[in-house]
Amino acid sequence: MTALSAADPIDLGAMLSDDEKAITESVRSFVKSAVLDEIAEWFEEARFPARELAKPLGEIGLLGMHLEGYGCAATSATAYGLACLELEAGDSGLRSFVSVQGSLAMFPIRAYGSEEQREQWLPGMAAGELIGCFGLTEPDSGSDPASMRTAARRDGADWILNGTKTWITNGSIADVAVVWARTDEGIRGFVVPSGTAGFEQREIHHKMSLRASSTGELVFDDVRLPAEAVLPGVVGIRGPLSCLNEARFGILFGALGAGRASFEAALAYAGDRTQFGKPIAGFQLTQHKFADMAVRMSQGLTLALHLGRLKDSGGLKPDQISIGKLANVRTAIEICRTARTILGANGISLEYPVIRHMTNLESVLTYEGTEEVHALIIGKGLTGLAAFA
């Protein structure tokens, strides 16, 4: 009998409410039954069955789960984070799908949209009948979103939208895009349905990370939108940045799921793999690796749970989200890399989840703010001085 759980070495689960425990188990069960047997094949074939998974995800209340009304589950922020952890234990692409749907597409409509926009889009998105995406990143504008070139101008009562967005999760398959563009009034958000004249959605291929995820490019060529398409509740860069903070919060939990899955795979493998007459789990250097992974996992889980409680109390600052995102993605990558060494050559095989999680996390490290960007956000929070414009 082992004394410690790889999933939760210091029993932080004892600090969860009954609802949080139930949500965790529900999502873990879904991932096990609907994803784990297929995910290696999806990754190898570079495909993600979004349409097949969206409705089941909606049925168990995961899409926009931390939002209120319009068919959303209105769970706690901590429960949302725990769900992200379990989803990413399946694959980062799965968590990304749910995160983009809820935190980047549904959240701005809920927070800044008109009542008509909310009624039109949110119930279908919560049910998984409609898929959304978030158009912010551009070919020449990543870490500096304020330099975006996509622009919208008024033409009578309408808006004319032009520009390109790239590296957009769900972009090639979305039924609706929340797109951020420059206007004479400042940066505004627009709700753009697929099929709108002049709006083209293209799949991005040849990825070596997040292969089980739909990634696209959005092209807008004189797209005419009615006045009702603009999000009326926000003007300026704080609109898209607030959405990014919602997504980053999910990531600081989610990345640990990838780390945990790799840790558990390495632990099981080391117990079965025999060298020099005994399981490699019995060697000192291997146990040192496991001890290090357990400590890192415990620290990451403690940080995530603390930030979740802060968010639920209304006291979480954007700078603190950056601490969580920076620390826990870094932690998860190190756990995956250490787990890979324990599996040896088998560590690069898709028969095991480790290399898949490891390569996925290289994208998670970059999106929703690179390490450098989060370090500078934290630095500004500590010093009061901005190291970037």
UniProtKB/TrEMBL annotation:
Q: What keywords sit in the KW lines?
A: FAD, Flavoprotein, Oxidoreductase, Transit peptide
Report if keyword S-adenosyl-L-methionine is assigned.
Answer: no
Xref: Pfam families: Acyl-CoA_dh_1 (PF00441), Acyl-CoA_dh_M (PF02770), Acyl-CoA_dh_N (PF02771)
E.C. number: 1.3.8.6
Biological process annotations from GO: fatty acid beta-oxidation using acyl-CoA dehydrogenase; fatty-acyl-CoA biosynthetic process
Which pathway does the UniProt entry assign to this protein?
Answer: Amino-acid metabolism; lysine degradation; Amino-acid metabolism; tryptophan metabolism
Is Zinc a UniProt keyword of this protein?
Answer: no
Domain Acyl-CoA dehydrogenase/oxidase C-terminal, first and last residues per copy: 236-382
Q: Name the family.
A: Belongs to the acyl-CoA dehydrogenase family.
Q: Which domain of life is it from?
A: Bacteria
Q: Which GO terms describe its molecular function?
A: fatty-acyl-CoA binding; flavin adenine dinucleotide binding; glutaryl-CoA dehydrogenase activity
Catalysis performed (reactions): a 2,3-saturated acyl-CoA + A = a 2,3-dehydroacyl-CoA + AH2; glutaryl-CoA + oxidized [electron-transfer flavoprotein] + 2 H(+) = (2E)-butenoyl-CoA + reduced [electron-transfer flavoprotein] + CO2
Q: Where is the Acyl-CoA oxidase/dehydrogenase middle domain?
A: 133-223
Q: Which InterPro entries match?
A: Acyl-CoA_DH_CS, Acyl-CoA_Oxase/DH_mid-dom, Acyl-CoA_Oxase/DH_mid-dom_sf, AcylCo_DH-like_C, AcylCo_DH/oxidase_C, AcylCoA_DH/ox_N, AcylCoA_DH/ox_N_sf, AcylCoA_DH/oxidase_NM_dom_sf
| Identification of the protein by name | glutaryl-CoA dehydrogenase (ETF)
Cofactor(s) of this protein: FAD
Residues covered by the Acyl-CoA dehydrogenase/oxidase N-terminal domain:
17-129
Q: Which SUPFAM superfamilies match?
A: Acyl-CoA dehydrogenase C-terminal domain-like, Acyl-CoA dehydrogenase NM domain-like
